[in-house]
Amino acid sequence: MALTPIHEIPIQEAHAKQVRRARCCLAMARTLFLYGLLVGGSAIFSIPFLWMIGTSIKVDREMFGEGISFLPMRPIPAQQSPYLDARYFKTSKGDQAAKLRAWITEDLQQRTLPLPAGVQVDPTEAAELLAQGVLLKLRDTLPISTWDLPDPDLRRTLLAHMDEALIADTLRKVYRFLAFGSVRVRSVDLQEKEMFTESDPTRFWTLESGSQEASFSAVEGDVFEQARLNYHFGEDPAPIRLSRTLTLPFQTERLHRIQVSVHPDDSWHRLDFYVEKNGVRYKSTYPLYLGTLQTTVVTLQEYGPDDGVNSTKLKLWYPYQEIDRGPEYLDQPNQVKVEVVMTPSSQLQAWWAKANRNYRGALNYIPFVRYFATSAFLVILNIIGNIFSCSIVAYSFARLQWPGRNAAFGLMMATLMIPPQVTMIPYFLIIKWLGWYNTLHPLWVISFFGNAFNIFLLRQFMKGIPRDLEDAARIDGCNFLQVYWHVIMPLIKPTLACIAIFTFMAVWNDFMGPLIYLSDQRLYPLSLGLYALNVQEGGNFGMMMAGSFLMTLPVVIIFFFAQKYFIQGVTLTGMKG
Q1: How far is Cα 107 from Cα 5, in angstroms, rounded to an integer?
Q2: Is-above-0.85 flag for pTM?
Q3: In this structure, are 458 and 538 located in the same domain?
């Protein structure tokens, strides 16, 4: 045997160290690549989920802008109103856009801008604010060839198309004001009357003491009668209180609803509504935040059976409840006092109001709690039925010997090839013959008859369990049911957890079954309830995404905490002897 010379040993050790270092680097690179691939894939597949969360916080105008943004806009509480919104038009980037804005701004500064009365803004700042809006409008209307003209011709063309109508339209888009309009009352027998009958709309509401920084004025060019509320909050802002005593054409006991028209100014300040009648003072159960631009009709209705958990009505009103009573409150047989209190919001309060706006709408618009409870009830029954029926059938296929076992197992597996659309009509006829139509029975009874895939999964798991455990139990005097319960069931917990997760996701997201077998809205699960919300408020994507997120959240939470059992149940094939 040849011996290695002593002088070559250090060389070989150095080479071995290099090899080990290279292997370590390669292993680390492989690990980083795999983890990077997993993280990147997770980030890509989480984009729709993140978009849903972001959309659930947005208001309507943020979802129909020029660009796509995952993050909602920051709400900025306005210190005064009316005002011009400087964030409405996004500034175009580039030297060319900056040059065009400078031309337009210079021209606007030389004009007398038709600023609404009450808007406290410097004309120079107003010109700079409107310049971007005018530029965007011209880009949408002028031919493409116009933008290739030399600078003198391009400037002359742009300024020639800047007429008064274009400037007024641009100004209208950024003009924000708070106004109160029509006030209507309705009795329980549907008798209605318009109470906003003042010749001067600014005299309808009375400003209470302590509201020195507020005043009313008419809305310019308004086809509807509205009173604009001008306000300015200083360093120590106090709430602004408006009140009006209404003389009803009927007795106060017959009063059903009061409707107040409000035009928000996107200030995210809080409006609370109070009602006084029969010596009792009421307050709306939740406020209205001025975070939109569309005129809103606030319907005030006394809290009643329609506001309960079991009610299935679409709640489009603001219920008010009693907070105090006494002789100091209005007590006339046909009069009611309406009070509106506007409280300024801080930045944190504005964020909170925007974050829960769509969620509160989804929870109030449909009987969300009732639908959630129905879905949870169906999930529990289906999980119990699947675990019981599938485990005992799989036990008979895997551990018991009986004539025709393999043929029966093959026949059961063949049912997986039958599309559910084929059995849908026969199953519906059976359900109707049993008298179970428009009940919850067809949505959970079938789970107690087993599921072919779950039975197959459990059978494969049970076949890997050593016979020695079963024989030992039989020696101790256990029958086959006791072996099933005391020996087999504890060993198949990972697979049972996997089946429970599969069943939960299938039942929780089931839409076709409830749509076919249910017509009573009181029996709707959450999946069908959100569909009803989509039918009524299909254009309100923020509210739809809020409801969808609330429905998806339980699935994400359960899978996150049960993923260990889920992976074990899918990959584990049994015990090794």
Answers
A1: 92
A2: no
A3: yes
